[in-house]
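In full, the data:

***
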Amino acid sequence: MDLKYFTECILEWWGQLSYTVWMYFALLLPLTALIYQAAGKKNRRYVLLAASWFFFFSLSGILLIANILTSAFVWVVGNKLESVNADKSIKRKARKKKKKQILVISVVLLLLVLVIFKYLDFLGLNIVRITQIAGIPFDWKVLGLAVPVGISYYTLEAIAYLSDVYWEKTEAEKSFLNVALFMSFFPKLIEGPITRYGGVPELFAGDGLVLDNVAYGYQRILWGLFKKLVIADQLAPAVNSLYDGDYMDGGVALFAALAFTIQEYMDFSGAIDIVIGSARIFNVKLAENFRQPFFAKNASDFWRRWHITLGAFFRDYIFYPISLSKNTAKLSGKVKKVCGASVGRFVTPAISLFFVWLSNGLWHGPRWTYVFYGMYYFVLILIENIVEEPFLKLLERLKLKETSAPVRVFRYVKLLFIVMIGEMIFRAESLSKGFDMLKCIFTDLRFDVMAENLENIGIDRYGYIPIIGGLIVVMIVETLKEIGVPLRAKLQALPVPVRFGFWYVCIFVVIIFGAYGTGYDVEDLIYAQF
């Protein structure tokens, strides 16, 4: 074997390691699984931690230190909170005050690290804009700091863990190894789902591989690769072409919004399938992050089905604490006195939702399009909460049920339009570009330009075949899941030759119709950026 060629291949893989490259699921996963199984129960955590740090280092290099230091910080603070909880020599009120001080300082420090790595240039450049308007001389040299992979995910997990120890929902972990493994576990590192510490006891158990878990894991990985490579990555050139193009009318804007909505869902949900499948190989059951979101009845329901773990984090650690705070209760009471109970009852949810959706927008990254995206859903969900009761009364007068076909169709079309508009601005390079696209939809809606250029936007006529075919398959599967059909159980019940034949066909479909080969550029996972 040519050693130089072998070295070049390894270095090329090292630079492209991700959940969707074949070296990940055909080499890294099985190799880790073999070492894991051979290591024995006591040492398996070390194998997973070594694989996780290797994966992290391959993506972020020396920034692995940031993850290790964060893990050490969380481990120390968690045990400090636990010791205060257990110290009965301190009066209950004083103990609570001390715990709160520790929690607040630790959360501020965790967020400060996140801000420095991810948002510092954004803040600096916007301060420059403000000072220019005010006529104050100020300049900011763009630092361009490299961001540790997964920092947005593991920072939220750290905050959740420390908060749960503070509220005594979970005991502090005594083992630094367990905390470090939780904070860097490679299957969930760059895409989530955002995991609660008490939700993955299997991660530390060290149990040996189970054949059914390995089979399920690779089946789930295959399904994720199908969505990512056959649909999302095939759509990527068209989405890039449409958003980077100079000409825009309503038809182009709508098609761009639809294409990106499909791409993002297939990319993110496909990656989560790979993540959950990868973890299951090691017996770890990560939380589901999607539940057929496009079957939702409104925007609120959509977000209960889309990126479920992020929504659950904001609900438990922002919405509820703000809703139950004394200051919010006082403000709500004042508004009720002035404006009446019918208005005052919306004050608490409005305040809480504002901070939830501001956080949601900023979490995605340092761009005003993301902030607007958060505020967009804040306004829509607040409006939905206000008009829901009158809408139900209107249905009663019209003698219609929520489950009736006309109502469901109306809600589906409305939701699809809402989601597409949100994703259109989310993907736009700037707010002005996003607003221009939105303006075109309402002032210049025609489809002749789009029809003439369907084959000139990065997809030829044959390229649409796997995309449309893949979409039909995903729609069928999601419909069956929504109505409760146990698809995997039915597949497992098939005769062995039929079952194996089915999975081999699926593998060849991904290989043949997936985005591979000459001229194909590896498409980064969209949510890995966040």
Residues 121 and 477 are 43 Å apart (CA to CA). The radius of gyration is 25 Å. Residues 41-207 form one domain.
